[in-house]
Write a structure and sequence with these properties.
80% of the residues lie in helices and 0% in strands. It has 22 helices and no strands. The protein has helices at residues 2-10, 16-32, 35-48, 54-69, 77-90, 94-105, 117-133, 137-153, 159-179, 183-199, 203-219, 223-239, 245-261, 265-308, 311-394, 398-405, 412-425, 429-436, 442-452, 457-464, 468-482, 490-495. The two termini are 67 Å apart.
Length: 501
């Protein structure tokens, strides 16, 4: 025992042989029939098995023995309850985690001189987070407020730790308020968590806060803002060194939903596939963890059975083991079936989006062909007028020439049809034009669309029924209104509005 304790004190690596030695200690302690010694050995055994499914089991056994001997004989008994509460929370057993967490907190006023202040804060966080998972928002807010009150009364000696935990507590209170429909109160608190976490690069807490804010944007159909936040949250989750699979899944699912709403099927499929793969890995990992937990429980019970030499109990445990293993196998099969069903559903939705996109692409192509044909016809009509003008002047019929030169090729009805086709061919043009030109009038709108078709001044003049010099003046006025960058022509600037980027 002292050899292993010495390794913990000096920060030395725990070796596989140490696990074997500590199990031998358990056997020796049972022979001595000393419950207090057995409790200490089980506590040490739990520390050696930290990070495994044995961790909770041996802490529970230590609590059982300490309760039998009397808690007053153990200086750090509250740490056993904390360890069990943490382990149960990590295995998603939130109700039991709360039970052991509250028992841990009950020692706060009994063992004041043995408490680590940060353990107390962490235990409050586990209880608050468990209530949040159970949708008991008032209880969650109460325990996170306890963190704020504690740190306000006795600040942590490390300023970064102080700032981080205040941010976490306020952010979770804000999250609870948002889930209760009190978004105006809760949102600023989540932003505070994001700010405090960012200041010290706590990536897991940054991802948690950003996921909450992204979900709020999605709720109010701000899909571009939501997808941007979810992508940032996913990036931070990837950088975190802590267990953040849940945050990755939330981010990927959110990105997939946004792209579906924005009708971007390729991106929706890409992130949906990432989500499904990660979720499948998580389901398999959970299945493996459950199986590992069962095996650990069986091994633990086997040890207890051997120590107490109760053969009848051993047979019962074996039957239970086989039953549970069968249940785990069935659960794994059901999980895989659900995964495949979800994948087929996503594939079907993607195919529908692709068909819609192809139909829209065809419609845009047809509209652009009509626009190009329209521009070509305009050029041909202008050439025809010029030929007629020369013929008429040669014959001395000036009045007829003048009449032809003043002919307006586009009526209001023609412009209505033209604009409808133009919008389908270039859906981004008019919205972007209106963004850069305040209070755009119809004349400017027509002029810009004809410039976009790469028509010259004379062609535009013939179409609008005005002179080429009037077109030039109108272009200069429009260039001043748009504030075209130095060295760039208004024609090239307007044509750039059609770019998809």
């Amino acid at each position: 025992m002292y050899e292993i304790l010495g390794k913990f004190e000096l920060g030395l690596k725990i070796l596989p042989q140490d696990s074997t030695n500590i199990y031998d200690c358990i056997k020796l302690a049972h022979k001595l029939k000393d419950d207090q010694l057995k409790a200490e050995v089980y506590t040490l055994c739990a520390e050696v098995g930290k990070g495994t499914n044995r961790y909770v089991l041996y802490n529970l056994k230590a609590i059982e023995l300490e309760r039998k001997v009397g808690f007053s004989h153990f200086k750090y008994v509250h740490n056993r309850f904390f360890n069990v509460s943490l382990g149960l929370y990590q295995s998603n057993n939130y109700r039991k985690s709360i039970d052991y967490g509250l028992q841990c907190l009950a020692f706060k006023n009994v063992r004041k001189n043995t408490w680590d202040p940060r353990v107390y804060i962490f235990q409050l966080d586990i209880v608050g987070a468990s209530y949040l998972k159970l949708n008991q928002y008032d209880s969650a807010r109460y325990y996170y407020q306890q963190i704020i009150d504690t740190l306000t009364k006795t600040p942590d000696e490390n300023a970064n730790v102080q700032s981080l935990w205040l941010g976490i507590a306020k952010g979770n209170i804000g999250h609870a308020l948002i889930l209760q429909g009190k978004e105006a109160q809760g949102t600023p608190l989540v932003y505070l968590q994001l700010q405090n976490s960012t200041a010290i690069k706590s990536y897991n807490n940054m991802a948690i806060a950003q996921n909450i804010l992204a979900n709020l944007d999605f709720k109010y159909k701000r899909y571009q803002e939501a997808v941007s936040k979810w992508k940032q949250a996913y990036h931070w989750a990837l950088q975190s060194e802590y267990y953040v699979v849940e945050q990755k899944l939330l981010s990927l699912k959110g990105i997939m939903m946004c792209y579906r709403k924005l009708q971007v099927p390729d991106s929706a499929y890409k992130y949906g596939d990432l989500y499904n793969r990660l979720n499948k890995e998580r389901l398999l990992e959970l299945g493996a963890q459950q199986l590992s937990a069962i095996k650990a429980k069986i091994e633990f019970d086997d040890i207890q059975t051997n120590l107490e030499n109760i053969s009848t109990k051993l047979r019962q445990e074996k039957m239970t083991r086989n039953f549970i293993l069968g249940g785990i196998f069935l659960l794994a099969v059901i999980s895989l079936l659900l995964y495949n069903r979800q994948k087929l559903k996503v594939k079907h939705e993607t195919e529908i989006l692709n068909r819609d996109r192809m139909a829209k692409d065809l419609e845009i192509k047809e509209a652009r062909e009509r626009i190009n044909s329209f521009a070509l016809n305009m050029g041909q009509k202008e050439k025809l007028i010029r030929n007629l003008e020369r013929t008429i002047k040669a014959n001395g019929t000036d009045n007829l020439s003048s009449s032809l030169l003043n002919y307006v090729l586009v009526t209001d009805e023609e412009w209505h049809k033209f604009k409808e086709a133009f919008n389908k061919a270039y859906p981004l043009f008019f919205p972007r034009l209106k963004q850069i030109v305040a209070h755009l009038n119809p004349a400017e709108e027509r002029l810009a669309s004809l410039i976009c078709l790469d028509l010259n001044n004379q062609q535009i003049a013939n179409m609008l029924g005005i002179s080429a010099s009037s077109v030039a003046r109108s272009k200069r006025r429009l260039k001043q209104r748009i504030a075209v960058p130095e060295g760039q022509s208004i024609e090239s600037y307007i044509c750039d509005l059609n770019d998809l980027v």
